[in-house]
Amino acid sequence: MQDSHARAQRPLPMTHSKALPGTGSRLPLLAALLLASAATSAQGLVIGVTEGVTYRATDPEIEAKFAPIADALGKALKQPVSIKILSTYNASRAAMQAQQVDLVFLHPAHLAFEATKSGRYKSVAWTAGYTDYKVSFLCKDAQPITNWKEVAGKSLVTPDPDSITSVITRAMLREQGLAEGSVKLSNTRYQDAVPFYVQNGFTTYGATASTGVIKAWKGSGGKTCAESRPVPIKQWLASTKLDANTTAQVRETLLDLSSSDAGRKALAASGYSAFVAPSAEVEKTLTAWLGV
After folding, report:
1. Which of 141, 205, 213, 225 has its CA 20 to 30 A from that of 268?
2. How much is the pTM?
3. d(Cα 176, Cα 154) in Å, to the nearest integer?
4. What would be the CATH architecture of the domain defined by 41-131+232-282?
5. Mind listing the pLDDT tens digit for each residue in 30-83?
C-alpha cells in the first residue's frame, strides 16, 4: 500500500514536443511578424490630402472628392484605405516628416519636391491637366516685360507666400536676376483677390495661376505681361516605408483609373480626368529651379 501510494504521489514525467528542424527558436519571431502583418492590414493605409490654401474648399468637401479613389485603392490593395485631410501646409510637412501618412495627394509642387528630395516619399503619379501649371503676371500694360531690370522697385501682389504660385513667382524673379527684396511683394490669401489690387492701382503686377482668374481678367480688358515655365501640381506620393509591391500596385491603380467605367466614376467625384506617370528628370530640374 505504501509503494502504491508513493507511486500515486510521484510527479508525472515532463513531456516535450519536438520542434521542426531549424525552426524551434524562430517560432516566437515568426508569430510576432504574423501578428504585426495582421495589425498593419487591419489598420490599412492612410492618404494625406492637401488641396492648397489659395482656393475656397472645406475639409468635408475635399474628403468627399477623394473617398471613391480611396475605395478603389482599398479594393486593389485588399485592405482599408482612409483619408486624412491636412488643411495647412505645415500640417502636411509635419505628417510627411514623421511619415505618418502612407500616401499623399499634394496640390503644391514645392511640398511634393521637398518630400521626395528628403527621401521619405517618392512620386507615383501626377494629375492630368495639371502638369503645366503656369503663373501669369496681371498688368495694365499691353506689352510683355522685356527688360526685367525695370521691374525692380515696382510692386507685385501674390497669393499666400507659401503657395506654389508665390514660390513660382519668386523663382521667376530669381531667374531674371532680380535680387530678393528688389520687388515690393505683398500678399493676399486667395487667388481671386489678386486682380483687385492691380485694377485699383495698389500694385503694378499681380501673380496668379488660376485659369478662371486670368480668363476673367482678360475678359474685362486686362493684360498679362509675363508667364512662368510649367510646373506639375497635384501630385501623388508614396512613403518609402511601403514595400515595393504595394507602391507599384498603388501606382498601377491610379494610372489605370481612367481606363475602366468604375475608375472613371471614381475620378468624376474628384473632378480630375486621369492620373499620369511622373517624370524624374522634370522633377529634378524643377526642384532646383524652385529653390527647394
Report:
1. 213
2. 0.82
3. 15
4. 3-Layer(aba) Sandwich (3.40)
5. 443 333 333 344 469 999 999 876 566 789 999 999 999 999 999 999 999 999
Record the cell numbers describing residue 173, joined without a space: 524673379
SS3 198: helix
- The rounded distance, in Å, linking the Cα atoms of 241 and 220 is 51
**pLDDT tens digits, residue range 121-165?**
999 999 999 999 999 999 998 889 999 999 999 999 999 999 999
Q: Are 238 and 122 in contact (CB under 8 A)?
A: yes
The listed CATH number (3.40.190.10, 1.10.760.10, 1.10.1740.10, 3.40.50.2300) that belongs to domain 136-227 = 3.40.190.10
Domains of the chain, by residue range, sit at 41-131+232-282, 136-227
What kind and span of H or E run contains 61?
A: helix 59-77
Amino acid (one-letter) located at 229? R
Task: Say if CB 181 and CB 155 are below 8 A apart.
Answer: no
Intrachain domains 41-131+232-282 and 136-227 with the same fold: yes
Nearest C-alpha neighbor of 219 from the set 138, 155, 157, 156: 138
Name beta bridge partners: 207.
137
